[in-house]
Specification:
Number of helices: 3
Order of helices and strands: EEEEEHEEEEEEHEH
Helix content: 10-25%
Mean pLDDT: 92
EC number: 2.5.1.9
Low-confidence stretches: none
GO biological process, one term: riboflavin biosynthetic process
Radius of gyration: 17 Å
GO molecular function: riboflavin synthase activity
Keywords: Repeat, Riboflavin biosynthesis, Transferase
Strand content: 35-45%
Distance between the termini: 37 Å
Catalytic activity: 2 6,7-dimethyl-8-(1-D-ribityl)lumazine + H(+) = 5-amino-6-(D-ribitylamino)uracil + riboflavin
Structural class: mainly beta
Number of strands: 12
Strand order of the largest sheet: 1-2-5-4-3-6
């Protein structure tokens, strides 16, 4: 489990095409401290497994399904990525419960800067709109954010200078894809209420 609090802005140093998969090598001095084979690291919000670790770099295999459902397929050498290690038991939950299981992708539609923050508008797949509510939580490229405005096909978030400086959202421009993970609690509630309604109709 992750919290959506990005630990560092890493970099893709190599991409190997494996046909039905890809192997990424990524640099991240913070997240590689004590890393071992089999450990999990979230890369732009996608939970990946460490295959090899040497110095401040690690490699991770990404299956075709993940490449298809996330924006990892557009990564290239030099791409910057958000990195986070799983939260430790007993640690503070600084963001919200994040699984690292991407629900879909959105696209940066617009950026509106102001003196102390920036409003970013992101497209929202129709099948995810029901899980996104004003002042609710959403994960964008692995970053735990609060929804400012929720529309039928988009939502907005307000970014503070720290988020702009230390994550990929400071670099993304209109047209760039982002990974989205909606609040898992909303999905569980929907399922439970659906099961209850079906039970009542019997």
């Amino acid at each position: 489990m992750f919290t959506g609090i990005v630990e560092e802005l890493g970099e893709v140093t190599a991409v190997e095409n494996l046909g039905d998969a890809a192997r990424f090598r990524l640099r991240g001095p913070v997240v590689t401290q004590g890393a071992q084979h089999g450990d999990s690291i979230a890369v732009n919000g996608v939970c990946l497994t460490v295959v090899e670790h040497e110095g401040d770099e690690f490699t991770a295999d990404v299956m075709a399904e993940t490449l298809k459902r996330s924006s990892l397929g557009v990564l290239a050498v030099g791409s910057r990525v958000n990195l986070e290690r799983p939260t430790a038991v007993g640690a503070r939950l600084g963001g919200h419960i994040v699984q690292g299981h991407v629900d879909g992708t959105g696209t940066i539609l617009d950026r509106t800067p102001s003196e102390h923050w920036e409003i970013v508008k992101i497209s929202l797949p129709a099948e995810l709109a029901r899980y996104v509510v004003e002042k609710g939580s959403i994960t964008v490229d692995g970053i735990s954010l609060t929804v400012v405005d929720a529309g039928a096909d988009h939502f907005t978030v307000s970014l503070i200078p720290t988020t702009l400086a230390l994550t990929t959202l400071g670099l993304k421009q209109p047209g760039d894809p982002v990974n989205l993970e909606v609040d898992v609690v909303a999905k569980y509630v929907e399922r439970l209420l659906g099961d209850r309604a079906q039970g009542a109709g019997k």
